[in-house]
Amino acid sequence: MDIDLNADLGEGFGPWRMGEDEALLDIVSSANVACGFHAGDPVIMDRTVRMARARGVDVGAHVGFPDLLGFGRRPMQIEPKELVAYVLYQLSALDGMARTAGHRMTHMSFHGALGNMAAADAAFAEPLVRAVADFDPTLIVSSSASRAIEDAAARCGLRVRTTFLADRACDDDGLLVPRKLPGSVIHDQGAVLARVRQLLEEGTVTSYSGRKIPMRAHSILLHGDTPGAVDLARAVRGVVEQAGRVVPISKQSDR
């Protein structure tokens, strides 16, 4: 089975840039593009989409809380109807940018605290996933392992692409552990690559508690804001290719 290599990109703001988006776009097969709420702005979105199209990389909306100062990683208490509007606004923004650039938005993902809250709470996830289906029922929801999101997507007729976060620890249910815990973000490249090999060879991951849990992932996420992200992405791609798994190339570009 092909394995998608995915990265969170476009996460700068104004003159400030985060990560090496251009270099990562030469390695990954899909990108989640920040839509201006947790990071990003119209100019960065447009530039990122056009660079992705030129390289045959799929783009999706990276939808987050309206929290630029906290990079979308702080939980916020917002009424569901308001949150649904925020989701639709961000989907519309990237979809419009992609269409104008001659590209197409293929997927979406929930960022940071919004994603963690949706993954852990079925009632919270339901209206947000429904909003995605109402916007475009052909979109794929890219998500870490989450029964809440998977069940909501099934009810809405949406496909889910389960994504393994190679540099983030998970609990025994496959949910991401809070970043405040020691070891929640894995910085050692050797440890990250060992996790990727385990996933590809065994179909399992080792949870934060040390338990091996099954995981059927269709995608591996690489955080663009992680120091050394480009070298790590290159190394992960090497492991995937050594395992005989193919990193797909988009059919959407003119490349």
Describe the structure.
There is one protein chain. This protein is α/β, with parallel strands linked by helices and 255 residues long. The protein has eight helices and nine strands. The chain has helices spanning 21-25, 42-55, 80-100, 112-120, 122-135, 147-156, 189-202, 229-242, and strands at 4-9, 30-34, 58-63, 105-110, 140-143, 159-165, 204-206, 212-214, 219-223. Helix 4 (112-120) packs across helix 5 (122-135) and helix 7 (189-202) runs parallel beside helix 8.
Major sheet: 7 strands, parallel, barrel
The percent range for helix content is 25-40%
Roughly what is the average pLDDT, rounded to an integer? 93
Strand order of the largest sheet: 1-2-3-4-5-6-9
The number of distinct β-strands equals 9
C-alpha-based Rg, rounded: 17 Å
Derived structural class: alpha/beta
Order of helices and strands: EHEHEHEHHEHEHEEEH
Question: Percent of residues in beta strands?
Answer: 15-25%
How many individual helices? 8
Fill in the keyword field for this structure.
40% helix; disordered C terminus; globular; 8 helices; 9 strands; 18% strand; two-stranded antiparallel sheet; alpha/beta; 255 residues; seven-stranded parallel β-barrel
